[in-house]
Design a protein that fits this description.
alpha/beta; UDP N-Acetylglucosamine Acyltransferase, domain 1; five-stranded parallel sheet; 2 helices; about 30% strand; globular
Length: about 160
């Protein structure tokens, strides 16, 4: 890596660290991702946020993304509502894959090693147990993944 790229990378880490509650090692956030209320976004080690992803948190809600989790193109994580009700956080476990154009609404909890399929809409207050594959509108359980821990890891 060139000296200029290293400088830019270090500076970006400093800027992101200033505005985010983050783990020790930063995940990757693509430049076109939109982040609302970055102080309430927690990104786990080795996680990747793809192009066009929108993360909407509020001062009273958080979006927590575990380690080695991937969020696909144009996915939306929305941790607020416009109906005057209390906002609830979105919690995503480790080794989770969220497919392209998926929408995850407030109050959703996704267990470790799970998959949310492309275009799925996970509605508020849904709990996805660990190791399950959910898809559709609204999202429903499709199947349970293998129990081997190697099968859960997202390849980088």
């Amino acid at each position: 890596m060139t000296e200029r790229k290293l400088f830019i990378r270090q500076r970006l880490k400093q800027l992101i660290a200033k505005w985010c509650f983050i783990y020790e090692h930063l995940g990757q956030v693509q430049p076109s991702a939109q982040i609302e209320c970055p102080r309430n976004i927690i990104l786990g080690e080795g996680s990747k946020i793809s192009y066009g992803v929108r993360l909407f948190a509020t001062p009273t809600s958080r979006i927590v993304i575990g380690s080695n989790t991937r969020v696909g193109l144009d996915a939306k994580l929305i941790a607020f509502n416009e109906q005057g009700k209390p906002n609830e956080s979105i919690i995503i476990g480790d080794n989770v894959f969220v497919g392209s154009n998926a929408i995850i609404l407030q109050g959703v909890r996704i267990g470790d090693n799970s998959v949310v399929g492309a275009g799925a809409v996970v509605t508020k207050n849904t709990v996805i147990p660990k190791g399950e594959f959910w898809c559709g509108v609204p999202a429903r359980k499709n199947k349970t993944r293998l129990e081997s821990s190697d099968a859960f890891a997202c390849s980088g």
